[in-house]
Design the sequence.
């Protein structure tokens, strides 16, 4: 599920005073998962053997996708401001407030990935997935 709701209001109270108010709500829940059968039981020989490998020379990826990713985020944002304008000067003041959780987790076969360049091993990037 993913949606964004946004709105903004601008009001002119006089020829010199302008006010604005706005809000935005964003909600994002989704998972990027391996295809069926690709994820292996952690710390088994298959889990280590099916660690993803990518070749920076050929731009190919082998064995498994990058990772299983789990996103659950919501963000609410509110803003308000007022402007007072004279012929040669202006003053503007406002506030912003934002809040919401950000939950993201990753699991990956082998806890890392191998990097190759045109078939030649370059390095292994180790990560610490849950």
Sequence:
């Amino acid at each position: 599920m993913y949606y964004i709701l946004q709105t903004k209001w601008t009001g002119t109270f006089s020829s010199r005073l302008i006010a604005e108010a706005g809000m935005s709500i964003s909600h994002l829940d989704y998972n990027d998962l391996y295809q069926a059968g690709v994820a292996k039981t952690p710390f088994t020989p298959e889990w280590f053997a099916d660690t993803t490998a990518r070749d920076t020379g050929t731009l190919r990826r082998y064995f498994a996708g990058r990772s299983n990713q789990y996103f659950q985020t919501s963000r609410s944002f509110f803003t308000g401001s007022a402007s007072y304008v004279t012929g040669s000067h202006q003053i503007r003041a406002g506030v912003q407030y934002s809040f919401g959780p950000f939950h993201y987790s990753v699991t990956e076969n082998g806890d890392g990935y191998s990097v190759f360049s045109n078939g030649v091993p370059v390095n292994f990037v180790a990560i610490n997935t849950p």
Q: What stands out?
A: The helical segments are 45-49. The mean pLDDT is 90. DSSP finds one helix and nine strands in the chain. The CA atoms of residues 75 and 100 lie 4 Å apart.
